[in-house]
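FAQ
Q: What does a multi-component entry look like?
A: The components come first, one per line:
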Amino acid sequence: MTAAPRHGVSKGPVGGAVGRREGGRTDGGAAAVVGAFADRYGERPDGVWAAPGRVNLIGEHTDYNDGFCLPMALPVAARVAARRRPDGLLRLHSAQAGGAGTELGTAALAPGTVPGWARYPAGVVWALKEAGHRVGGADVYVDSTVPTGAGLSSSAALSCAVAAAYDGLYGLDLPGPETARLAQRAEHVFAGVPCGIMDQMASVCATPGAALHLDTRTLVHRPVPFDPTVHGLGLLVLDTRVAHDLADGAYAALRAGCERAAALLGLPALRDLPAAGLPAALTRLPPELAPLVRHVVTENARVAEAVALLDAGDVPALGPVLTAGHASLRDDYRVSCAETDLAVDTALAAGALGARMTGGGFGGCVIALVPADRSTAVTAAVTTAFRAAGHAPPAVLPGDPSAGARRVW
Ligand code: GLA
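Then the predicted structure of the entire assembly, as tokens:
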């Protein structure tokens, strides 16, 4: 597998954005979505639900190994205005996609039959029905501020917002982890994107001012206090604008490599390999699998280390853990690329306490933990370095730990 940057088609709700993308825009609020819904469908919605994009602080490529991760929700979110329909029709419009929208019969939904962004909301309805929930049609209007293809989980935000809307419209009262599982199934089985569970759990279960410590085997989770501002710090999210796409095969190949390694070691999943057993395990693996296993085992340990530091209130000490995570993704897992490496190295040289790529890799975003008074300098340094290397300047998003899925109107 290659660590080369991808310039592919994004998988998120805007759909069809090729190569370099526009950055996230500011949130227009629920009222605008209510108005747009009414313009489109002639009536006001029954409600508006929002679900956020995420960054992962640490614990990358651990979720499909039954491991641990520590994501947090961002202020950017997908908003879904929806109204229940009695006739089983699912009508979908997106502010980003524009056009005439999509109309589907909910009785006939089947994996692989719906193209483009509509496969995520349609997949949620399919997954709910498959799980035995008595749901029918709806009019749906989507407006998302989560940039697509940036590795910020725009598709999970969309799927989780639609799941939250259906939960409200049909009075399902689903527990958070079940909502997340259904949204993941929509993406994985219906839309054909082989993601883990981290993004959906973050989008549904995150809380403001905290990261989410998640055991992806049991879905046991808890908020871990994370408020960099208390320490005079901030979390910068730098979008390299190199499009990242989970559906292009490299992610699936990594997953398969991890599963093969676990099978060779006689383990249910790589999560079951303790750090103390790593040196012996590495001698039993072929050279192409050993670095993958080393990343997963050391990354699970970094999650535990990060959680201990945050529980102790030592946010600045998180920095070196982030940077070590990046080195492991770059050298062992090999999912970094020139732009993410340049952003990390430049941010560190300009005063960041720690930095790493976040999300699936092959582009996407870098997070940097920075002293508040170095934030502008770090951003300027990365922008200058990108220009000098011939890359488009990165987009900058605020990394304030935000709320998970909720009704907003
Ligand atoms: C993507 C997937 C997640 C997770 C990350 C890597 O974001 O959707 O499930 O595997 O990559 O940590």
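Q: Is there any commentary attached?
A: Sometimes. For this entry: The chain is about 35% helix and 20% strand.
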